[in-house]
UniProtKB/TrEMBL annotation:
Gene3D superfamilies from the UniProt entry: RNA-binding S4 domain (3.10.290.10)
RNA-binding S4 domain span: 4-68
Molecular function GO terms recorded: DNA binding; ribosomal large subunit binding; single-stranded RNA binding
Keyword Ribonucleoprotein: no
Database matches in Pfam families: S4 (PF01479)
Xref: SMART domains: S4
Full protein name: RNA-binding S4 domain-containing protein
Length: 139
């Protein structure tokens, strides 16, 4: 098979969890093929560059094989190549860190993992070196 629908391909190579979500992303204009917006029925072929916008990051993938049947996670590297630029990953890391400082109102209570990361981020480094237990002599 030399061509495949974009929504089926993105689902098959595990970019999206379901084909419905992949089709919705196309409908919302978050998917582009070789620089042009793509509808769900648009076909992809080997060599195409697909850009997937999952705010705040735009991921880029190169199609190596066009498939429509879902495959195991270990085989994904044979079907596509991740060509996302490093600056996009820096953007992701920055948004992940800043997400703890400016928590959205109504986002709920922080999880235990959120709390530990927040404490690690806000605790001054010199605080680890002190032992706050003092010996007081009673008279």
């Amino acid at each position: 098979m030399s061509e495949a629908r974009i929504d089926k391909w993105m689902w098959a190579v595990r970019i999206f969890k379901t084909r419905t979500i992949a089709a919705e992303a196309c409908k919302k204009g978050r998917i582009s093929i070789n620089g042009g917006l793509a509808k769900a029925a648009r076909t992809v072929k080997p060599g195409d560059i697909i850009q997937v916008r999952k705010p705040p990051v735009t991921y880029s993938f190169k199609v190596l094989q066009a498939i429509e049947k879902r495959i195991g996670a270990k085989l994904v590297t044979e079907m596509m190549e991740n060509v996302t630029t490093p600056d996009q990953y820096e953007l992701l890391e920055m948004s992940r860190i800043s997400g703890f400082i400016d928590r959205a109102k109504g986002a709920g209570r922080p999880t235990k993992k959120d709390r530990r990361t927040l404490e690690e981020f806000t605790t001054p480094e010199f605080m680890d070196d002190f032992d706050f237990e003092f010996d007081f002599e009673e008279e």
